[in-house]
Amino acid sequence: MSKWSPLILLIQMGSVFVHKLNPINALGGNAAQVDKIGQLTLTENNNLALASVSARLGNEKACNKHLKALIGDIPGPGRCQLSDPISGYWMSPNSWMIIAPHDTHEDLASDLKARFAETASVTEQTDGWCCFDMHGETLERLIERLCNINIREMRSGDAYRTSIEHLSCFVLRCDPIDQVRIFGPRSSAGSLHHALITIMKAID
Fold first, then answer.
1. Which domains, from first to last, does the chain contain?
2. Alpha-carbon dihedral of residues 194, 25, 181, 174, nearest 10 degrees?
3. 1: pLDDT confidence band, cut at 50, 70 and 90?
4. Of 154, 152, 201, whose CA–CA distance to 42 is shortest?
5. Maximum distance among all Cα pairs of the chain, rounded to whole angstroms
6. Are strands 48-55 and 95-101 parallel, antiparallel or unpaired?
7. Nearest to residue 140, comparing CAs of 97, 90, 178, 185?
8. pTM for the whole structure
9. What are phi and psi of 183, to 5 degrees?
10. pLDDT confidence of residue 2
11. Sign (positive/negative) of CA torsion 176, 198, 127, 55?
12. pLDDT (tens digit, 9 = 90+) per residue, 47-94?
């Protein structure tokens, strides 16, 4: 008897089992979680499509040309190009993370592959990262206790890589200036969220 026989028997008996899978957010819910503590609001952002773009050796100039046409400028180290609807921030030399609304850019990685062609390597990143948006008057106090970046010197469009609770994260200072966006590994979304909530309560 072949290994497929049980499946064949089920089909012959008229029984077909179909898994019904529902998408969930990084924190496990069906809707984005919002936490308000004191003067701060923390929002789980579940509507972002992400893809990394890395220029291929010898194609840096051509890649940069495509990138500039896409988001308006080429972010250097520690910077993010805040554009609408597609933004991007610097990750490493000749490598950037591209961000767009998921509702309208679900196929972001495929679209970027078509645009950049042989000039860059494009990798789907949407399910690899979680994102939390935070805003409020005491934002700078929180970031100072959370990680080692100089938040008071950051201006709109700055994007720094740092460690939060031993997790490698990116912190983007957005526009308006009292908002930051934090990207962390999706597999540790719960740990990152716990760290953020703990500090929010501590400074309340």
1. 34-203 (3.30.1360.120)
2. -150
3. very low
4. 201
5. 70
6. antiparallel
7. 178
8. 0.87
9. -105, 130
10. 45
11. positive
12. 999 999 999 999 999 999 999 999 999 999 999 999 999 999 999 999
Instruction: Look up residue 83 and give its amino acid.
Output: S
Alpha-carbon separation of residue 178 from 22, 36, 76, 156, 184 (angstroms): 34, 15, 22, 9, 20
Residue the block writes with tokens 């309340």: 204
pLDDT in tens, 92-118: 999 999 999 999 999 999 999 999 999
Rounded Cα distance between 54 and 65, Å, is 13
Which DSSP state fits 79?
A: B
**136 beta partners:** 40
Instruction: Supply 21's token pair.
Output: 């899978």
Q: Could you give the 3-state DSSP secondary structure of residue 52?
A: strand
Token digits for 71?
A: 């988001």
| Residue whose C-alpha is closest to residue 96's, from 46, 127, 60 | 60
Q: Locate 13 and state its tokens.
A: 């008996």
Give the contacts of 118 (CB within 8 A, at least 6 positions apart). Answer: 56, 59
